[in-house]
Write a structure and sequence with these properties.
single chain; seven-stranded mixed sheet; 50% helix; binds tryptophan
């Protein structure tokens, strides 16, 4: 039996039907016109891992009219980062490069502390520092990028309180599946994330800000849009860009940390040997069952995990990607060859990342927002 689809900030399971999510959530599919305007952006957008939006056309229009626009996306520091966690930050960086805008990055250490049993407050603070280094290493502009942690940048609390006052318990309950046994941190946190989403406007005044984020986070955006124009808040509704999930090495819908050994995903700290081993051993392949079969019928790039990783992150060159697709689908390129190429590309990326992450230690403070 097919497992029922569940997609919300705290659970993603079953076969994910993205068209249905657009309908259920009431979002808008990204149009050809919008993709065209983003044709110089990161492959994650160009190659359509980002598939849905809210008012992003307005954001682009405001930019074209010379009005201020910005980007905000966050990170819940529950563990060290893996490549799936990079998705919203690669887009934020790409929007900063292409539109010259400011980027705001809240780190919800409070959220992960509340929702993860067994995670101590000290651990979330350590993971925050580690995760922020990974984020800075992506190359954000220190003059235009503002990073803050909820436990440290406590100024955020008064904004969250303003918002909390406008959200009823029953709204939060239905949007986030709050159940009686949950600690009350869960109930307040949505006000905090709404404060993150409106933070660019609290900080810089009323303007359009876009939240690039996995579609599972949309309930936070809906909630924020519903209260943002209230007369005591007086902001514009935030825009959103929603991504599909990057598959785990096993080929399931979402790269999450469900596998206790971490064999289903690639951490940014994995060394060359570990990457090689994980890809060779665990990466779900779309290749034929036998060599003969593969040579005869070719491989399936739609389900092959290595191909997905190349397509969305590691192969920027459109022509090269097209060549791989053709050769793999015709059976000329074998699974072993595709894996070998992917291992090289990932290891190249990670080697550069390690260097940039080291450098990030020296500029860390330039990114961190201080309490007033
Ligand atoms: N809740 C997000 C997660 O678990 C992280 C996050 C915190 C976030 N604040 C945000 C995402 C604001 C988008 C916008 O991944």
């Amino acid at each position: 039996m097919v497992k029922k689809m569940v997609v919300n900030p705290y659970e993603v399971s079953g076969e994910v039907d993205y068209e249905k999510l657009i309908k259920d959530f009431g979002t808008t599919k990204i149009s050809k016109d919008i993709y065209k305007k983003l044709s110089n952006c990161h492959p994650l957008i160009r190659r359509e891992l980002y598939f849905s939006h809210r008012d992003f056309d307005k954001w682009l229009k405001n930019y074209e009219e010379g009005k201020k626009v910005s980007v905000i996306t966050g990170r819940g520091p529950s563990e060290k980062m893996h490549i799936g966690h990079l998705v919203p930050f690669l887009i934020a960086k790409s929007l900063q490069d292409n539109f010259g805008c400011e980027v705001f990055i809240p780190i919800s250490d409070d959220e992960k502390f509340y929702v993860k049993e067994g995670l101590s407050q000290e651990d979330t603070i350590l993971f925050s520092r580690e995760n922020i280094l990974d984020i800075i290493a992506l190359g954000f502009d220190p003059k235009k990028t503002f990073i803050f942690e909820d436990f440290v940048y406590t100024d955020i609390y008064r904004y969250a309180a303003k918002i909390a006052k406008r959200i009823t318990y029953s709204t939060a309950k239905s949007a986030f599946g709050l159940t009686p046994e949950k600690n009350i941190g869960w109930s307040f946190y949505p006000a905090m994330q709404a404060a993150h989403i409106l933070f660019p406007q609290f900080f810089r005044g009323k303007h359009l800000s876009v939240v690039p984020v996995g579609i599972d986070q949309d309930p936070f955006i809906r909630l924020t849009r519903d209260i943002s124009e209230h007369k005591e808040i007086g902001f514009l509704k935030p825009c959103a860009l929603h991504s599909k999930f990057l598959p785990s090495l096993y080929g399931d819908a979402k790269m999450s940390s469900s596998d206790s050994l971490g064999n289903n995903l690639i951490y940014l700290t994995d060394d060359e040997k570990t990457v090689k081993n994980k890809i060779n051993k665990y990466a779900f392949s779309g290749g034929g069952a036998t060599l003969e079969e593969h040579k005869k019928n070719g491989g399936n790039t739609q389900i092959d995990v290595c191909f997905q990783y190349l397509k969305y992150i590691f192969e920027e060159d459109d022509e090269k990607l097209e060549e791989i697709k053709k050769d793999y689908e015709s059976g000329k390129m074998l699974t072993g060859e595709l894996k070998k190429y992917t291992i090289e590309k990932i290891n190249n990326f990670l080697e550069k990342h390690r260097k940039k992450r080291k450098e990030a230690e020296n500029i860390f403070d330039e990114f961190i927002l201080k309490n007033k």
